[in-house]
Specification:
Blueprint (H helix, E strand, L loop, with lengths): L4 H11 L27 E3 L3 H11 L11 H19 L2 E7 L14 E2 L7 E3 L4 E5 L7 E2 L2 H12 L3 E8 L7 E2 L6 E14 L2 E7 L14 E6 L9 H6 L2 H14 L5 E7 L5 E5 L4 H11 L9 E10 L11
Parallel strand pairs: 1-2, 5-9
Antiparallel strand pairs: 2-7, 3-6, 4-5, 7-9, 8-9, 9-10, 11-14, 12-13, 12-14
Length: 323
């Protein structure tokens, strides 16, 4: 990750315009979070019992591995386990949990909060394993009473699902349930969403600013170029001159995933453009942006330009883009 990443993230967070009720002073525009999925951190879907078993084998501490063979074979086995363990704890994962068996706490109207009853145990992989959130333990979401009712109605109708993206701690290991039959995995939630079929009902965690409506459901895609975080201000105009091409990149990305939005920070001035911050999480979009901005060669060193890709709800009128 670029050493500028914390600085870029802080600037974008500070510069994002306010647009939500005072009870929750956050920007309606997506912001860069270093925890979000990006081209350098793909998300691995855990769907089957073997997926979970494979992860648990990789999480086994090297000192617990009892390799067979001579000294060389045992040393090679330990090296492999070290590598697999390192890859496992630095990975990011996603599961889809059926919502029928999950217990909700009473809806908190004043706080506009819907949450699960703690302690939360999420059955995955056809019930062969359970996830135990060690942070954000109730997986709460903020929404009005009507939105909460839609979640509960979907649960009653048997169509509710929870999509959870999570990380693992460096010392995470899998345990066995009380009866020694089900694997339990402690996880650190990153983002989550409640869905009813293809419709997103609510989002939480790092995904809270993502739109509920997708492009396929009528949201309007928009590309906005911000002031350079580093480098000359005129580079904004140079990037804006390629807005039509950037919009084409976004349109293509939305065909793959109609709910994509977020911010890319493009670093210009090197041998080729680089993406130093990314909250969109679509490698093809990042690559398309790099290709579009490739011909730009600012004088006087590097330039960092934030580019926001967002979905406006139907009916929202934005001011004309300033060149």
């Amino acid at each position: 990750m670029s050493p500028m990443m914390p600085f870029l993230s802080a600037l974008l967070l500070a510069a994002a315009p306010a647009g939500k009720p005072a009870a929750r002073p956050a920007s309606t525009a997506p912001v860069v979070r270093s925890a979000d999925p990006g081209p350098d951190r793909p998300v691995t879907r855990l769907a089957t019992a073997e997926d979970v078993a494979r992860l648990c084998r990789a999480l086994e501490p090297t000192e617990r591995v009892r390799a067979k063979g001579d000294a060389v074979a045992r040393g090679e086995a330990e090296t492999r386990q070290d590598a697999e363990h390192g890859a496992a704890v630095t990975g990011r994962y996603e599961v889809i949990v059926p919502g029928a068996g999950l217990a909700f706490a009473p809806y908190d109207g004043p706080e506009r909060r819907l949450a699960l009853v703690e302690p939360v145990q999420l059955p995955i992989a056809d019930g062969t394993a359970r996830l135990w959130p060690t942070e954000e333990r109730s997986l709460s979401v903020e929404l009005d009473a009507a939105g909460a009712r839609r979640v509960i109605d979907a649960q009653r109708g048997g169509t509710l699902a929870l999509a959870l993206v999570f990380d693992l701690s460096d010392d995470a290991t899998c345990g066995m349930g009380a009866r020694g039959k089900k694997l339990t995995v402690p996880v650190e939630p990153v983002s989550w969403r409640w869905t009813d079929g293809d419709a997103v009902l609510a989002r939480g965690g790092a995904a809270v600013d993502r739109p509920l409506l997708t492009a396929a459901q009528g949201a309007k895609p928009r590309v906005d170029v911000g002031e350079p975080i580093a480098g000359p201000a005129e580079m904004k105009k140079a990037v804006l001159a390629r807005a039509a091409e950037l919009e084409a990149c976004y349109a293509e990305a939305l065909r793959r995933d109609p709910g994509l939005d977020g911010v890319l920070v493009a670093d210009l001035g090197g041998p080729r453009p680089a993406i130093s911050a990314d909250s969109v999480g679509d490698p093809e979009l990042a690559g398309c942006v790099q290709k579009v901005l490739g011909p730009l060669a600012p004088a006087g060193g590097k330039v960092a330009v934030p580019i926001r890709f967002e979905l406006d709800p139907p009916g929202v009128v934005r001011p004309a883009r300033q060149q």
